[in-house]
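Notebook entry, structure prediction.
Reason for the run: the old model in the group folder had no record of what sequence produced it. Starting over properly, with the input documented here first.
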Amino acid sequence: MREEKLSDIVDGARRVFFECGLAGARVDKIADAAGVSKATLYAYFPSKTDLFTEVVSRECEMLAEDLEKLLRKQGPVQETLQMFSNSLIGLVFSNAYIRLYRICVAEAGRFPEIGELFFKSGPERVRRILACYLTERCQMGDLTIPDPDLAADQFIQLSFTGILNDRLFGVQKRIDKSTITGRAESATNAFLAIYAVS
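New structure, fully documented this time:
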């Protein structure tokens, strides 16, 4: 029952934070969205910042797990990397991710721990997951990569080239599936041209 109540609070808080940001989210509105009293909310989370930290942690955990599952299917390298890139681009173009990203960056000056949490739980964790996969494929003889961490960063940047900043600054509101597929294919081909065993 306690875990169910905790989930209700976090889900309600997520909706309010995504709508209002951290600074604009009122505790009474969060309590209403979660269907609990303010006293109950404070019993679980002593501060609004603590609650936001929990939302960030859970959101990043879910997103990272989805990407990790793609790499565990053990299909051909090109197919797997292309699916990973495709999903990564789609994730970054999702309204939820962009909203979370913007809030964390906006609050990082006042609350450095929030920026650090988002970075380590989100972008940094995704990089580590991909680097681990690349290391495994090197051991299997599919790739030759002297620095898997650097290569993971390179692949992620190849996936986002020319589209990430447009999305973050609101220049491009959405991206169609065919464009995502094309970007993922281009990133994968460029990456394998460098690191695939010929």
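Summary: The radius of gyration is 19 Å.
The old model has been moved to the deprecated folder.
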